[in-house]
Amino acid sequence: MNEVRAISIFVRAATVGSLRKAAVDQGISPQAASHAVMQLEKSLGVRLFHRTTRKLSLTEEGQRLLHSVEPALATLSSAIDDARRTKDEVAGPLRVSAPMALGRAVLWPSVLEFAALYPDVQLDVRFDDHFTDLVSDRADVGFRGGSPPSGGTIARRLLPIQLIVCASPAYIERHGQPSTVDALDAHRCTGYRRANTGKQAPWEFLIGNEIVYRDVAASLCANDIDAETDAVLAGLAIGQLGSFSAVSHIRSKRLVPLLAQHVTQRESIYIYYRHRTEQPLRVRTFIDFMIGRLADNKAYFLEPAELRA
Length: 309
Description:
Arc Repressor Mutant, subunit A, D-Maltodextrin-Binding Protein, domain 2, seven-stranded mixed β-sheet, two-stranded antiparallel ribbon, 25% strand, rod-shaped, LysR_subst-bd, plasmid, LysR-type_TF_proteobact-type
């Protein structure tokens, strides 16, 4: 027996004075309503109604039960209504996970814009270089750089990631620039240490039709993309930077792309989430907003003509 449903029918019948009317209100047959109340009486071991052919009235036990359950049933009904209303409002908590490397450079400006447009959404953004499982980590939306995530989520590609060797004009003026990949051995280079493994990431190049990896002796190494970018901007070394970090500086002439013919575009930035039909409106709105702001946004990668130039 569904006791909550039976109690709901009991309360409605007591309020309107008729099992038939209660059945209509509940969208069930009179027989089903009568059966539910009889089952409730059997479960409780008491009679709840005095029944005649013309009248339905509460017994003393029925009066006590009605007095006890009405406030709880009203609270439950209010909670259900709130849940339904929240599903149709851009409001409530929203948990987002993203890698540190993408946070400041790509995601944060759009997240702040979303927060300004939808002040009733309580954003909880975690920057974490470990892959986030949405279910176990109780996140609504995740972002990832690399290959598309698997494991029951929907992934949407947002942007390509180009790995571009860059130097500042000041560095080139003092030390010149490498004309080949092998010539990098004669230069000071930065390194990026992966936060999730602690290992220095190799540089990668497109040579012919193959991706080739090189371990570069780093004169300066950091586990933060922004810190590595700052070192390259300061003219301390050459760096291989993700396009999402480098493009604005290249276009403003603060950085010069080197070895452009060897730029790789093997990975991408993805947004991932559970099935849209399971999401409240605030989550769907955030997903659509971020896709609208970031998908193929040329502010974060170079066109082929720009690379050739």
